[in-house]
Design goal:
heterodimer; A: about 110 residues; mainly beta; 6-stranded mixed sheet; 11 strands; B: about 110 residues; about 45% strand
């Protein structure tokens, strides 16, 4: 079966750095996405990785290791508005997105 | 209209009733998707359409049907609603169904079936 694993919940302090991990087992791999979802709102795109390595985009970076079936999302200089759920999704061999259940990130002052 | 719109925003429905959730996009995207999101579970694909005139089944298609008569609209119909279909439904679209294509989501419909 196909599986995406993420921690259910994480807590971090405003101004700090947090790393949200995602491991996956899917039938094929055609890219990995990270989305942000605020409570009661739609998911919004954050990043896309298809090759191994780090993609940096402002305060957010995403890393991929295809051989390990592993990715992480790194958030720097945390702000209160970063309190949200972060969804990891993998595009499989059928080009469908398989989604993790999401990691709820709580930012404390 | 800018992006994707969904209607209604929320709905309470009696079991056994028929319901159509509407989705319209103005980005001229070829591919469209319907997901449901339940607490503790990831988004699950119900149906998809890679281009106007074609549809396909996702992970959880039973009890749902879709049509794609044109590029902009992708309605989802529950023929006879059941309580297990209580969920938040998101419509999404992408330029194509290619590997790098980002999916953009509508605001969602919160559906309660009693």
């Amino acid at each position: 079966g196909q599986n995406i694993d993420q921690p259910t919940e994480m807590t971090a302090t405003e101004g700090a750095i947090v790393q949200i991990n995602c491991t996956y087992q899917t039938s094929g791999f055609n890219g990995l996405f990270w989305y942000q979802q605020h409570a009661g709102e739609a998911p919004t795109f954050l990043s896309y990785n298809v090759l191994d390595g780090l993609e940096e985009k402002g305060r957010f970076s995403s890393f991929l290791s295809r051989s390990k079936g592993y990715s992480y999302l790194l958030l720097k200089e945390l702000q209160m508005k970063d309190s949200a759920s972060y969804l990891c999704a993998v595009r499989d061999s059928n080009y469908q997105l398989i989604w993790g259940a999401g990691t709820k990130l709580i930012i404390k002052p | 209209i800018a992006g994707i719109t969904q209607a209604p925003t929320s709905q309470i429905l009696a079991a056994g009733r028929r319901m159509t959730l509407r989705c319209t996009q103005d980005m001229r995207h070829n591919a469209m998707y319907w997901y449901r999101q339940d607490l503790g579970l990831g988004l699950r694909l119900i149906h998809y359409s890679n281009t106007a005139g074609t549809t396909g089944k996702g992970e959880v298609p039973d009890g749902y049907s879709v049509s794609r008569a044109n590029t902009d609209d992708f309605p989802l119909t529950l023929a006879s609603a059941v309580p297990s279909q209580t969920s938040v439904y998101f419509c999404a679209s992408s330029e194509t169904s290619g590997s790098a294509d980002t999916q953009y989501f509508g605001p969602g419909t919160r559906l309660t079936v009693l």
